[in-house]
C-alpha cells in the first residue's frame, strides 16, 4: 500500500466495515423472524395432526413472509421510501430517519406477532385455549338476504382494502385472497384523470354512443362478491364545451352542478347502460355506490372553499331554489320578505349570496338555504337511482356519506343522513376513528381524558343509522380506522385494531373496506404512487406513509379479528339486533339553526353509551314509520327548534300512549324560523315528564329508571380509577337461557369488572374466545375485547 493513499483507503475500509455490521444486524433480525416462522410451521403440523384448525396461523404466516419481503424492498429503496414519507406533513421532517428505520421496524413487528401466534397455538395444542374453527369466507358464494350477508349459511362480515394495488388484476391471488380480502370492484383508478374502471361520463361520446371504455366495467370477472362506484370528479371536454355553467356549484368530489340539465341527461344514459350491462353480476352484490363523499358546503371560510366547492351557484340552482321557496311559502312573497327582512316583488327576483356568511346561522335565510341544499341532494340521488333502476330494478345502492356530516355541528353541507339512507337500499358510509391525537391538534383533545381512542364519529352516527334503517346492510366502503390524513401511527396497537373493528361490527357494519392497500406483490408501491405525486386531493400523496402498507401487526390483526367475529357471527348479530329501548329525539331543524346542537346531543349520547344496551334515535319519520313497541321512551334534549310537523308528531306519539322526557321548558318552543310556538306538549294517553332544568345527570337518571325493569338481568360494575365508565357492553339471552355478554373497553385505563345479576345471584363467566372460565370478577385492559357466556 502506498502511504500517500492511506488517507483514502482507511476511511473506505471503515465505511465497508460499518456497512457490513449494519447488514449483519439486519440479516440477524430477518433470520430471527425466519426461525420463528419455522417454529410456527412445525406447531401447525402438530395441531393439524390433532384435527385442530390452523386457519388463523396460515394468515399469520402469509403476512409474516410478505412483510419480510417488503422490509427488504424498503431497505433496498430507501430514497423512494424517503420520498413517500416526505409527502406527509407529519412525517416529512423526519423522512430520512424514518426511511432508514422502517425495514427494522417491520421485521420487529413481524417477530412480535409471531411470538404471540406461537404462544397461542401452543396453548391451543395443550388444550388450555379452546377456540372455534374459522368460518372461512366464500368470496364467490356470498348471499345477500334479510338484512345480512351470509357465507356457508351463516351471517358473515366482510373485509378488504379500498383502491387496492391499482393496476393489479382482480384475479391476482397475491392481492385478492383470504388474508387481504377478495372483494372485486370497479373504480380501481379512483384518482386518475380519465377514471378508468369507474362508472363515469367518460364512457359516453358526444353523439351519445358508448366508447371502448365501457369494457373496463364489463371485463370484471363474475366470480366474487363486489361493488361498483360512480366517480363524479371529471367530465369529457365535450360537456364543458356544450355547457359553460357545468362546473358552477361543484363540490370537492362532485365536479359538476347536480342541477345542470345536460349532466342529468348524461348520467341518465350512463346509469341505464351500466344497469343493463351489470344486472345480476356478483360485482354488484354490495351495491352501486352512487357517490364518493358527497357534500356541498355553502359557508364562507370553510376548508372546502379552497377546492372550489360552492364558490358560486349556477342559474339552474338559483331558479330551483326560487321554485322551492315559492312552494315553501305557499307563493306568499310577503312572508318571505318578513322572514328575510327583504323587499322582493316576486319569487323570480329572489337572490342569494353563496357561499353564505356564517353570521347568518339561526336566521330564516340560513335555514331556507340549508334545508333546500339538503332537499336538492336528496332529489339528485333519487333521480340517479331511478335511472339505474330503469334497466336494473333490483339493484342495491348506497352512498359513501361521511358520518361527520351528521356528527359535526356544520349543516350547510346539503347532506340529510336520514333522508339519503331512506333513498337507498343499503346503508353507505366511510366512518373513521383515530387511535391517537389529531395530528393537527395543538394541545391535548378532550376525548384523551377518558378514552383509548376517538370513537364518537363512528358510534353516534352508526346508532343513528341503525335506528333509521334497522334492516339494511351497512357497507363502509372506506373505513378510516387504520389511518387518515389527520391521524396515523407507525406503532399502531393490534389491540386498538381489534377493538375498533369489533365495535364497528357490533354497531352495524357488515363490510369494512379499509383505507388503503397500495403494495404491489414485490413490495414496491403501486404505479400511481411512483414518480412525482401531484393529485387533486393532496391527502392521497401522503397516505402511504404510516399506513397499513408499513404495519404487519395492523393488517394481520384486521384479518384475525374478522376470523374471530365470523366464528361468532350469530352471537354478534343477536347482540346488535336487539331492541333499542331508549331513543334520543333528533331534529335536523335544530341542527341547522343551532351552532352546537350535535355537540350538545353527544353529551347525552355519551352518558348512556356505557349502560349495557344499544342507544337508539327517534325522528319525525321514525316515529311515523316504525312500531312504537321498538322503544320505551323518547328523550328530547336541547332541541329548541322543530317544525310544526315535528311537534305534532311528538304530540300524536303521546296521544297514542307513548312516553316522552323533556329536558326543560325551552325545548320545542320555536319553529324553523325562530318564531315562538304557542303550543306545549300534553300527555294525552301517554307519559310526559318535563324536567325542572336541563341537568344532564338528572335527565339520565330519570330515563334509566323508566327503562330499567325492561332491560336484561345482567349487571356490570366497573372500576377504572376514574369517575367515568370506559366499557361499553351489550347483553342478549341465548337458546340455553344463559346470557351472551360483549364488553369492549374503549377507556384509557385498565377496568376492574364484576358481573352479577339483578336478583343478587352470583355469575359464572366463560370467555368464549378462549373457552376459559374467568369467574365473576376480572380485569380488562384498555382496548380489550371480551365475549362471555354468563350463567347463574
Automatic annotation (TrEMBL):
GO terms for molecular function: hydrolase activity. InterPro entries: Class_I_gatase-like, GH, Glyco_hydro_42. It comes from the Bacteria. Gene3D superfamilies: 3.40.50.880, Glycosidases. The keyword Aminoacyl-tRNA synthetase does not apply. CDD domains: A4_beta-galactosidase_middle_domain. Keywords: Hydrolase. This is Glycoside hydrolase family 42.
